[in-house]
Amino acid sequence: MFELIRSAVVADARRPLSIPVPCSNVRRLVVAEVDAPDYDELDRWSNRIARMLLRLGGGPGVVVATAGLPRLERAVTRWAIAKIGATVVQSTCVEPRHGAGVGVTIRARRSELTDQVRWLVLDDRSTLAGYLTGSDAPITDDELGVVRRAG
Question: Taking the model in full, what pTM does it have?
C-alpha cells in the first residue's frame, strides 16, 4: 500500500538522467531512468507527513518515535519531524519510557509496538487518503503554534 504513496510522490520523477561515463579514452553518454524523487518532491512529501504528525499531536518539543521504516521513508519522516520541531527516537521496540507520544511505523511492525503511542501507519488506507488529500505547502508558524517576537 505504501507503494501507492511513493508512486504519487515520484510520478513526475521518471526523467532520463544523462551521465558522462569514461570508456577507454572515449567519453560516452549513458541515459538512465531515474526512479527516485528529487529534492522538491521529498520536501513536499515531508510537508504532508509533518501535517499528519501535527494532527496526531506532534509538534515543537514532542518526542516522535519511528519504528521499522524503510530507508527512504525513514529519511523523509525524520525530515518531517524536524520541520515540526519535534525530537525523533528511532527504536525497534518503543516503550513509554522513551517519552514518545506520537510515532511513525508500517503495518508489518505495528503489532509489535505499544498502544500508548499514537501511531501514524504509513501503509494504512486512512494514512494514504490523508496523504493524498493533504497540502504539500511549506509548514507555517501558525500551524506549529509558534509565536514570533517582534525584534
Answer: 0.73
